[in-house]
Amino acid sequence: MKTRVAIIGGGPSGLLLSQLLHLRGIDSIVLERQTKEHVLGRIRAGVLEQGLVKLLEQAGCADRLHAEGYVHDGTLISYDNSMFRIDFTEHTGTPVIVYGQTEVTRDLYAARDAAGGHIEFQVEDVVIHGADTDAPHVTYTSQGQQHRIDCDFIAGCDGFHGVSRQSIPLTVRREYEKIYPFGWLGILSQTPPVAEELIYANSPRGFALCSMRNENLSRYYIQCALSDKPEDWSDEDFWQELKRRIPADQAEKLVTGPSIEKSIAPLRSFVTEPMRWGRLFLCGDAAHIVPPTGAKGLNTAASDVHYLYQGLCDYYENDSTAGIDSYSEKALARIWKAERFSWWFSSLMHRYPDQSEFDLKMQLAELEFLRTNKSAQQAMAENYVGLPY
Ligand SMILES: Cc1cc2nc3c(=O)[nH]c(=O)nc-3n(C[C@H](O)[C@H](O)[C@H](O)COP(=O)(O)OP(=O)(O)OC[C@H]3O[C@@H](n4cnc5c(N)ncnc54)[C@H](O)[C@@H]3O)c2cc1C
User: Fold this and answer.
1) CA dist., res. 271 & res. 380, Å (int)
2) What is the CATH number of domain 5-70+98-177+268-345?
3) Does the model's pTM come out above 0.90?
4) What letter would DSSP give residue 351?
5) Topology of the domain comprising 180-266+351-385
6) Active-site pick, 91, 220, 292, 330
7) Which of helix, strand or coil describes residue 239?
8) Which residue, 13, 26, 47, 78, could crosslink 83 as a Cys pair with Cβ 3.0–4.6 Å?
9) How far apart are CA 386 and CA 93, in angstroms?
10) Angle at CA 324, nearest 5°, toward 57 and 102?
C-alpha cells in the first residue's frame, strides 16, 4: 500500500489529523491497535479549548458539539469550606466547552467513515522503518498477515504506550518526567451535576473535582493513594468521601447514584524532545502527558495536530519544508507552557504525603492570592482557556 501520511493511532489526534488532511486532498491511512468500540469506550477528557473547537469546525465535525456541548464561562475553586469563581469570559473574552472526548472521537470517526477514510483496526506489531531516510515505511500485522505501507511521512499519534516515540533512538530523544505521589479515582454517574460549572476543591482530605458531561451525566474525581484499586472503593464510600472534600452547601445538594464507570488514573508530567525525527512526527500523548488538573491533555494534542497539519499543507501545497522543519520547536514551546500550568494547578490543589506545615501555609497563601487578585485570576483564566496557537 502507498499513502502520503501513515498515521499510527486512531485516537483523537490521529483521527483529527487524518480528517483535516483529507479536506485538503492529502491522503492518509490510520492504523489502530484496538477496535473502534474499545476506543469509544474510553472515558477521558471533557473540557475543550477554543483552539480545539475551531479545529473541529475546520474538520467539519463540530455540529453536534455546538448543539450538545456546554459553554462554561468560568470555574469554581474551593478551599477551607469556601468557594470563589474565576470568570474566563470576563478575563479573556473566551469560554471553554464541556463536551466529552468520547463524543469528539465519535464525531471524528463518523466524518472519516462518511469520507471513506482508510482506517485499519486491530493491527499488531506496528514497526516504523527508515524514518530518518527519504523513503520511510510502516509494517504491521492484521489477521495474521503482514502488510507494508510506503509513505512520505509518519505521524506518531499512538499515545503514551505506543511504538512511535520508542522508534526514536535514545541518542536523539530526551525525556523529562515527574510522577505525582497520588492518583485520581473517577466515577461517571447518571446524576445531575452538583453545580453548573466545574468545582476544583482543595481540602485537608485531598483534592476533589466535580465535573460533568451533560445535565444528567456527572464525572467526579477524588485524589487517592497510588496503591488504591477501583474495587477498593464502593460507590457509597466514594460519595461520602467526595462530600467531605467539597463545601458543605455543595455536599448537601449533591445527587448521588450508582457509578456506571469507575477507574483510577495516575498523574504524570512528561515531555519528550524533539517531537520530530526525520520523517516521523510525534503528536499528542505520544510526546507528552500532563496531569489532568487543568484539562490540557486533549487540548495539547490538538495544538500539535494544528502545527503538523499546517506544516504538511505547506509541504504539499507550497513545496515548502518551513512548517515541518519548525514543527517540533513550535509544538514544544506551547507544550511546556501547558505543562507548567498543569503542574502549578496540580501543586496548588493536591495534598502531598510529604507536605510540611510551611508548604500548607504556602498553598493557602497562593489560594488566597488567587481569590483576591484580579491579575492572578487573569493569568489563570488565560492558561485555562488555552494559550494562542
Ligand atoms: C484515564 C485518563 C483520563 C484522562 N482525563 C483527561 C481529562 O480529564 N482532561 C484532559 O484534558 N485529558 C485527559 N486525559 C488525556 C487525554 O485523554 C489525552 O491527552 C488524549 O486522549 C490524547 O489523544 P491522543 O490521540 O494523542 O492519544 P490516545 O487517546 O491515547 O490515542 C492513541 C491511540 O493509539 C492507539 N495505539 C497505541 N499503540 C498503538 C500501536 N502500537 N499501533 C496502533 N495503534 C496504537 C491506541 O489504542 C489509541 O487509540 C486522560 C487520559 C487518561 C488515560
Assistant:
1) 22
2) 3.50.50.60
3) yes
4) P
5) D-Amino Acid Oxidase; Chain A, domain 2 (3.30.9)
6) 292
7) helix
8) 78
9) 12
10) 35
Residue in 70, 99, 109, 200 annotated catalytic: 200
Please report, for the chain, the start and end positions of each structural domain, with discontinuous segments joined by +.
5-70+98-177+268-345, 180-266+351-385
- Give catalytic status of residue 306 as yes or no: no
Do the bridges between strand 208-214 and strand 217-224 make them parallel or antiparallel, or are there none, so unpaired? antiparallel
Task: Specify whether 296 is catalytic.
Answer: yes
pLDDT (0 to 100) of residue 383 = 98
For residue 290, the one-letter residue type is V
Q: Is 118 labeled as catalytic in the residue annotation? A: no
Q: Which atom of ligand 1 is nearest to the CA of 284?
A: 26
Quick one: average pLDDT of 259-279?
97
Q: What are phi and psi of 204, to 5 degrees?
A: -60, -20
> Across the chain, what does the average pLDDT equal?
97
The binding-site residues of ligand 1, defined as CB within 6 angstroms of any ligand atom, are 8-14, 31-34, 39, 44-46, 101, 123, 126, 157-159, 161-163, 265, 284-285, 292, 295-299, 301
Q: Which atom of ligand 1 is found nearest the CA of 301?
A: 26
Reported as a single tens digit per residue, the pLDDT across 52-73 is 999 999 999 999 999 999 999 9
